[in-house]
Design goal:
alpha+beta, binds O-methyl-L-tyrosine, binds zinc ion
């Protein structure tokens, strides 16, 4: 950690244009860990080779350490120096063996980067720059080494010793300690290093790869959690087969282990052969995990597994290329999830995530391209832009190339760059070659930030039978990028006649200029425009379609995403009118929802998503200045009207969905549970007197967490005192289960009730609340920050609460603190009074002595960006 003063003085910024290839390579490294939670000795032997004819010293990254000893070619060496955290050694030849020793303290490592303790076990997290907290090494992704790792530890406390690759030897010592040695034959960057020492049990299985090799799979957890690992293990096997079938990618080691830990800064980590997971993305059973949890577990297990090729076999040259592995891997896991159930619903969920997390980022002070040009702290760039917009960019490439071209491109990419560290541009070049296309202009997606806005106006001349579609794109300025060049936007379009039939086939139109006109002839019927079908480009469409046209598309469009989108647009238009004009006609929305509910041909999973109103935050995003209370009131009024007017339909949807027998995890059963929650929400919104009873009955009778949490959420948003009983029952039932208690905190932090700020402040003093566990911190502080109504209620108390907790959390875990800051950075979107109070808190954070560079970067960009 560095304080704000030195943060201002230090050369903080790393720039993409300054990239230099490494001076020294490390083909091999042998690590020896004498493991103990309070004091672990790490000996590293590096075979280093000079990369070219230069005379520069060897520079090894460290973080807060001084080596206890340094040996060069086996001989103790005194001619080394520290340049800040970097160990510098002058070397005469072009190949040497360097040995260093350091002592580190896992039990004091609250940052959870490097080697740390979690639940009595020891584990590592090295991406992006955590390996330097373990030993001295050129800690950059373009230095690839073969690793041999020996671990020695107390046998009773740490019976299981795991590292990357395959186990090669193990043994016992006389003093109650034992050791194990692992070797990873695949050269890898240091960020993929991992070890785990602990008292763990494995759920084991095997997988036979397409070439007939048997792989031993293990999911390691504390013994009592073993019954909760079945879903993750089965997802892993399905993902392994999927990557063979869809991308031709086979697993390459004899073992693949996953370890679940309770304290983890992110979701999970793709360390070669030894993935380490936040336990929330492994542990599930019907009583403790919702359907969304089950889906997320399968998606994250698949994501980390897919990194074995997109990230590990082909890695990143430098951290500016992060989206090379993350955007591509998210695209791959989205494809995997789409194949496991409803592809349409998966697309809706992905777009919802993009709009909730990435669009605001792109429109605010933290906007950055998917390949940034500079950073202070790389861990601040594990963002929705790098991950989710990155995936959208890959999706557009796949759309442009078509399935065969895209597969040819990815085959070429994996082939050509296997075992190396590549760039985004390397990837794009393979796509150009594989698809036989020119992506020169398309590359702007990598360098320009901001969400393009596309206006679409359709004119029709009935006499001549000619329809003209006028398109125009513009992208608002973002920090450091006042003017934008036009993007290449692949827009899927189709026209419908008012009788509900398509006027011609869908076409893929490439909008690559600021404006364009598309002419359709032979159009005698009045056409209705369906545009950006399947969300083929990650843009905002501004069209002048009437509520009648949107209602029509919501009933007749044959692209399920476009149908959902028409409904959302209709809802948004209605809510924006209600907020800005103070009144709105609810009737078109009510009619569209009615038709959707009554359409028996539609998948219930789709219906459940389609009838949901856009979130408070998304409605706020459409406004010049967000008035959170006005948005909340408008949305509640529409919900009430929908609830009341369609009361019978909600009741029968609820009854239908409640007919299911005992819990099963299957697409139709999930759809029924989703529909049940949505219907319950509308029954409650209608103000029906029995709503709380219905919810409480569901809460008590539920045989699964989806139904139980769905009912709890309805109660916690409502006025009935039953919510207090339900919260107590829930708390007592799950008091020993950290992941479920997170839900207890989160549900309350997300409540739309007036008293949520006070409840949240009280929960922060609850004995089960702690900032030391990232999941718990996110479940209360993080959830409150994204609760638009509650966060902005009152006189800046919410802003103060967030800032106080970020300042406290920064001392323990700067990465997690920095992740929770963005809600304060949205000050420009609010009225002057709110903006001023938010800025006061950002300034207070920046004035805190000893601030981390993580939080310094986020707060200063948020204030000034
Ligand atoms: N590469 C991981 C994400 C990740 C990044 C940084 C971490 O450090 C705390 C942990 C995980 C992924 O994409 O899943
Ligand atoms: Zn990833």
């Amino acid at each position: 950690m560095i304080d704000a003063q030195s943060a201002l003085a230090a050369p903080l910024v790393t720039r993409r244009e300054d990239y230099q290839p490494p001076d020294w390579l490390v083909p091999d490294i042998a690590l020896d860990f004498d493991l103990d939670p309070s004091s672990t000795r790490v000996t590293a032997i590096l075979d280093v080779t000079r990369s070219s004819a230069h005379e520069r010293p060897l520079r090894l990254d460290g973080d807060g350490q001084v080596p206890r000893k340094v040996l060069v070619d086996g001989v103790p060496h005194n001619d080394w120096r520290m340049d800040g955290d970097t160990l510098e050694i002058d070397l005469p030849g072009s190949a040497h063996r360097i040995e260093t020793e350091v002592v580190i303290h896992p039990d004091r490592n609250t940052q959870l980067m490097g080697l740390y303790a979690s639940g009595g076990n020891l584990c590592t997290q090295c991406e992006a720059e955590g390996f330097r907290r373990i030993t001295f090494f050129p800690d950059r992704p373009d230095v690839l080494a073969r690793y041999v790792v020996k671990m020695t530890a107390d046998r009773k406390r740490f019976p299981v010793l795991l590292a990357n690759g395959d186990p090669i030897a193990s043994g016992d010592l006389d003093d109650g300690r034992h050791w194990a040695e692992w070797r990873d034959p695949f050269p890898k960057p240091s960020y993929l290093f991992a070890l785990v020492a602990g008292d763990l049990s494995a759920n084991r299985a095997t997988f036979t790869t397409m070439s007939g090799r048997e792989v031993q799979l293990g999911i390691w957890v504390r013994e009592s959690d073993l019954p909760k690992t079945e879903h993750a293990l089965s997802a892993l096997r399905i993902a392994m087969a999927w990557d063979e079938r869809v991308y031709g990618r086979e697993y390459d080691l004899d073992v693949f282990n996953i370890v679940a830990v309770d304290d983890f800064n992110f979701g999970a980590m793709e360390n070669k052969g030894l993935n380490i997971f936040n336990s929330r993305y492994i542990l599930a059973d019907p009583d403790t995990a919702t359907d969304l949890d089950y889906d997320a577990i399968a998606a994250v297990v698949a994501h980390e597994y897919f990194h074995n090729w997109s990230g590990n076999r082909v890695t990143c040259r430098d951290w500016f290329q992060l989206s090379l592995k993350e955007g591509f891997t998210v695209f791959r896991d989205q494809g995997f999830s789409a194949d496991q159930g409803s592809a349409a619903v998966k697309r809706i969920e992905d777009v919802r995530t993009l709009r909730a997390a990435q669009f605001p980022e792109d429109a605010g002070p933290l906007a950055h391209p998917i390949r940034p040009d500079s950073y202070m702290e790389i861990s601040n760039f594990y963002t929705a832009t790098i991950y989710n917009k990155g995936a959208e960019v890959i999706r557009m490439i796949a759309t442009i190339l078509g399935p065969d071209g895209f597969r040819a491109g990815t085959d070429l990419y994996f082939d050509r760059y296997d075992g190396t560290a590549a760039t985004c541009d390397d990837f794009v070049r393979c796509m150009e070659f594989g698809g036989g296309v020119d992506l020169s202009q398309f590359r702007r997606w990598y360098s320009q930030a901001g969400t393009p806005r596309v206006s679409a106006v359709l004119d029709h001349d009935a006499g001549s039978g000619r329809a003209t579609l006028r398109l125009a794109q513009r992208t608002p300025p973002t920090p450091g990028q006042p003017d934008k060049e036009p993007f290449v936007l692949p827009l899927k379009l189709k026209l419908f006649g008012t009788a509900g039939t398509a006027l011609g086939a869908e076409q893929l139109y490439m909008l690559d200029r600021p404006t364009a006109e598309i002419v359709f002839d032979g159009v005698t019927d009045r056409p209705v425009l369906s545009i950006n079908r399947g969300f083929s480009a990650p843009v905002i469409i501004e069209s002048d379609r009437s509520s009648d046209d949107l209602k029509f598309l919501s009933a007749h469009d044959d692209d399920p995403f476009a149908r959902y989108e028409a409904m959302q647009q209709l809802m948004l238009d209605t809510l924006v009118a209600a907020v800005t004009l103070g009144r709105a006609d609810h009737q078109p929305v009510i009619e569209a929802v009615r038709r959707t509910l009554e359409d028996a041909a539609l998948d219930r999973a789709f219906v459940a998503e389609a009838v949901l109103l856009p979130s408070d935050a998304f409605v706020g995003d459409q406004l010049e200045t967000v008035d959170p209370e006005a948005v909340f009131r408008a949305r509640e009024a529409l919900r009430r009207d929908l609830g009341k007017t369609l009361a019978d339909l909600w009741r029968s949807a609820y009854a239908d969905a409640s007919r299911a027998g005992a819990f099963v995890y299957s697409p139709p059963a999930k759809a029924a549970r989703r529909m049940r929650s949505v219907a319950l929400g509308y029954i409650a919104a209608s103000g029906a007197e029995d709503a709380a009873d219905v919810a409480f009955a569901q809460f008590e009778a539920a045989d699964n967490m989806t139904d139980r949490q769905g009912a709890l959420t309805t109660l916690v948003n409502g006025k009935s005192d039953k919510r207090i009983a339900a919260l107590d029952i829930f708390y007592n039932r799950y008091s020993g289960d950290a992941l479920v208690l997170d839900k207890w905190f989160q549900t309350q932090a997300l409540s739309s009730r007036d008293d949520t700020p006070a409840v949240v402040a009280e929960l922060a003093r609850h004995p089960d609340f702690s900032l030391a566990n990232p999941n718990r911190a996110r479940s209360l502080v993080g959830a409150f920050g994204v609760n638009q109504r509650a966060f902005h209620l009152g006189d800046g108390a919410g802003y103060r609460f967030l800032a106080d907790h970020l300042i406290a959390l920064d001392k323990l875990n700067p990465q997690t603190a920095a992740k929770l800051l963005p809600p304060l950075g949205r000050w420009r979107r609010f009225d002057e009074k709110r903006a001023a109070s938010m800025k006061v808190e950002l300034e207070r954070i920046l004035a805190t002595p000893g601030l981390s560079k993580d939080l310094f970067e986020q707060a200063s960009r948020s204030l000034n960006g």
